[in-house]
Amino acid sequence: MKKVFIDGKDGTTGLKIYNRFENRNDIELLLIDSDKRKDAKERARLINESDITFLCLPDTASIEAVSFVENKNTKIIDTSTAHRTLPDWAYGFAELSCTHRNKIKDSRRIAVPGCYASGFNSIVYPLVQSGFISREYDIVCFAMSGYTGAGKKGIAQYENENRNEELKAPRLYALTQEHKHLKEMKAISKLDKTPIFSPIICDYPRGMVVTIPLYADKMSKKYSKADIQSMFAEHYADSDIVKVRPLDYTQGMIGANHFAGRDDMEIEINGNDDRILITSRFDNLGKGASGAAIQCMNIAMGIDEKTGLNIGE
What is the reported pTM? Predict the structure, then answer.
């Protein structure tokens, strides 16, 4: 039985991780007294007593928590932005490559991907690694998410009965092109140029669609939709969590909330042979946050990575 501590249990992601352990008999949860949640000495004690500690904290607090580690056997799984592009940390998206999976398995420092970055890298990483596009390709990405991705304060705004009328409509943000996920989007997919990224927050709780449009004649050669679908299907062939759908899978519209409550992800290729749309659909709190964190823990423990996850067809 592994001893697990969640530093930041009362935040959105921390609470979701905590709730996932309700029926697990292979985990002993170490709990901190509510009045000591910010007590550095008590947090340090529990971190070093644990086999695995989840950090569900702001970046600065996560960096501080890592500095508390003295037990060389304690594994840290950080859900913040702080460590995602550091070379000595495993990037927690096992399906990207065998190298990513093995590093998660062997490392004592694992960084859980950002929600938007999960969708982005699920598409762009295979495109670059396969040579379908170059590292210099001018990537544009647009995405929409449920409001739970905005954290506790954002959720409270959306769920307030006296909320601003503007919250009833989708809202484009990150207008300065400085979204916090851009750094890992560029670094993990090994791009030479920072992508243009336009995220939209919407008036529904959970679910996310990330879309990459491509001009076929700007790729390394003019691949067809079928070529692209085959490449993605091969790349994710061994995964039960990332599913590549056949061409023409969706007739009409792709709903962003369809994967709410699930921990898997689906990729679709649409458009035509000149202008192609590649979409990644998942739950921003599932494969985009707590589900990914639990998957990383399972891999690090050497057990079935789907343990405790909700995986659909």
Answer: 0.96
